[in-house]
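Box S2. Input/output pair 1.
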Amino acid sequence: MDDDVFHRTLVEMAACLPAYFRRRISHLQTVEDLTQETLLKAFRARACLREQTRVEAWVYGIARRTLVDHYRRQAAVTVNGVEFLHLPVNGCDNLRAVLVSSARCYLETLPRTYRDAVHLAEYEGLAHGEVAARLGLSLAAAKSRVRRGKIMVRNLMEARCRFEYDGLGNIIGYEVRSLCCS
């Protein structure tokens, strides 16, 4: 394909790609970043284009993979290992800190049998088999206690906070109904 035609097609795609990303991501800066990243990847990989008549489809394929990469880079916030909220990495450090701190606080309110199992699994990073050995439990019992403990913490958090989500399930705000460790 002629370089001029390729460049014109990329310029046209630069106008269309933000709409593609906006339907999938609410944060405007992220939309702009993903658009630029996609265009840069397409420009760098132009030698790999096989079907010269399908440039648009090829660029949208790159956009889709760029979006998947973005979600993989996103940090899923876990409350004691249960994926509770998906927070974008950018701009949510304060919110993440509040959630993690709250999860630890709520964990302390659990009965010791669940608290110890969750603490060992999530905060010390032990495998379920190691948790079972440390607590003198069977593997099934250790798994059960860890899972039940995580669910208890999540339920406590949801009972005491009202979370606001965007269309993609990302938390955008919260309102505390009652404090945990007060």
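Box S3. Input/output pair 2.
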Amino acid sequence: MEWEAVGWAAKIQRDWKCLELAPAEWLADKEVMEMAIRKSGYAYEYVCQELKDDKDFTLEAVKSSWGGALKWAPEKTLKNKKFMLAACNEAYQCLEFAAPSLLENKDWVLQAVAINGLALKYVEDSLKDDPDVVTPAVQQNGLALQFASKDLRADRKIVMEAVKKNWQALALSTSPKLKIDRRLLLPAIEQSWHAFANLPEDLRDDRELAELTVKQNWCALRSCGPQLRKDPELAQIAVKQCWRAYLDLPLELRQNMDLAREAVKQSWEALEHVPLDLRADKDLMKSAVKQDWKALAFAHKDIRGLIDIINIGLKQTGLALQYASDEIRQDPKYIIRAMRKDWRAIEHAIGPNHADHKFWNEVTNMSPELPPHIKKKMEAALAQKTKAK
């Protein structure tokens, strides 16, 4: 008997569904059944009647079943006003099983929708058409509007209350006019820029609505109408928030130096998307290269010969030498400067320096870790020069 008891406890702990086959004494064991309903409120189906009559126990089952456990609750429990309000506080879906006498009781329904507006889904139809009930429901949860009557979903005051609580409620209105009503759109957009993205194109070309939206989130610039996507002021608002907004601009705005500088100031990566002629600007390039020498890869050819810009890169790594002009890459002074940061810079040097004894000695003394293939190449060049003499 002791083995059997231990065995059933382990079974219930492992899988509450075994309760269907469990002995009656286990179904009456409150401690074990509490363990079962904490795993799943649907275990409530199998507990003994005495536990089903226990309102505290039943409420625990409601918490872990989204109210579904009430399918097996006693009728007197489903009629109990206080208990059903407590259950609604845990899961409004429990009202699916509430007694009709409660769902027809306006005073009780008002208490329920004050707890969770979505409780409106289960109330008697006449109350769904009652502004006194629907208004507090949507004030608690704007999405409760979907359960109101068709007429009330077209009522401006009620829709306004719903939208104030949740911008998505606007889409639930049955009135096409209300869905594009500016008095409703403004509070919706103030909550979320996504409300703007779902508007008809003519409203997405409305300057006031667009500016309000882009100030919230730069991504909204993508949703603006064709005219406003070319607006430099809106573009400036977006790019100041995030440089990636620059990538979405039409070419004519990417040609705007102020916008390009703002984007590059935030991230040198924006430089790749700046028109080539703007990348000849010294200040723009200096801002980018100070952040990361790799920005030199996108420099205009006129910039590659400016030693003050190249030096910014060389201070970070000798590998920046690869993006310098040919003139700089064959100057021993800059090759040595680059190699002091990284010996691999020699691989980007050009010209006859490798055949110069003085240069070779300085390089080998400074970078004894030069790999054999480079040493061999330079020694061959020296030998050829000596032989030519």
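Caption for Box S3: Residues 372-388 form the longest helix (17 residues). Residues 10-103 form one domain.
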